[in-house]
Design goal:
single chain, 200 residues, mainly alpha, two-stranded antiparallel sheet, elongated
Length: 200
């Protein structure tokens, strides 16, 4: 009986989550897709927890069991946020599939660099989207057209660099060959550039 009630409550949660997410993306302003989806999951979990408390149907569930359900719903909401809207919004892999479909099912392999630089960046407003995300996250600031790291940004960049160097695969398959290139992508980076700046 308790399992049935828990499943019913979880069904309510899923329905509420989908409803809130749909309303959010269609009628509200969204700054960052991932953060908005996280909030949707939290709101759906809280709304369903109210249902658990108010309706007598769920009184067979103990207080700790209800707490466990809410924790599970929060985790499900997080998993949904990062695995569905965020992946589809950010994923280059999804873009490749969608672009192949758009172009009739096939694109020459040696043209993908052109597709990425000339189409992907513009079609997905890639620079605007990523800078907006970092501004909202507090990792960068923009002053007088110069984008610089905050202390938080420096910490995250250092962690990412450390993890990439020491904890990503040293033998990763890239188009039929195993390579460690992605553990140090700046290894062959151009040294002489003219786009560096310092805020005034």
């Amino acid at each position: 009986m308790k399992l049935t009630r828990a499943l019913v409550a979880s069904t309510f949660f899923v329905a509420i989550l989908i409803g809130i997410y749909y309303f959010n993306v269609n009628f509200l302003k969204v700054n960052v897709v991932f953060y908005a989806a996280i909030v949707d999951g939290i709101v759906a979990a809280l709304a369903t927890s109210v249902i658990l408390v108010v309706f007598r149907y769920f009184r067979v569930l103990g207080g700790f069991e209800k707490f466990q359900l809410v924790v599970i719903w929060l985790l499900v909401g997080y998993a949904f946020a990062i695995s569905v809207p965020t992946v589809i919004d950010r994923s280059l892999s999804f873009y490749i599939l969608e672009k192949l479909q758009q172009r009739g099912g096939g694109i020459k392999q040696d043209s993908f660099e052109q597709v990425f630089t000339q189409e992907y960046v513009k079609e997905h407003h890639l620079v605007d989207v990523r800078l907006t995300e970092q501004l909202e996250s507090g990792t960068i600031v923009v002053r007088d057209g110069c984008v610089t790291l905050t202390e938080k940004g420096k910490t995250i960049a250092s962690f990412g660099r450390y993890f990439r160097t020491h904890w990503l695969p040293k033998q990763r398959l890239l188009m039929g060959k195993y390579s460690d290139d992605l553990t140090d992508p700046f290894r062959h980076s151009v040294a002489d550039v003219n786009y560096e700046c310092q805020p005034r």
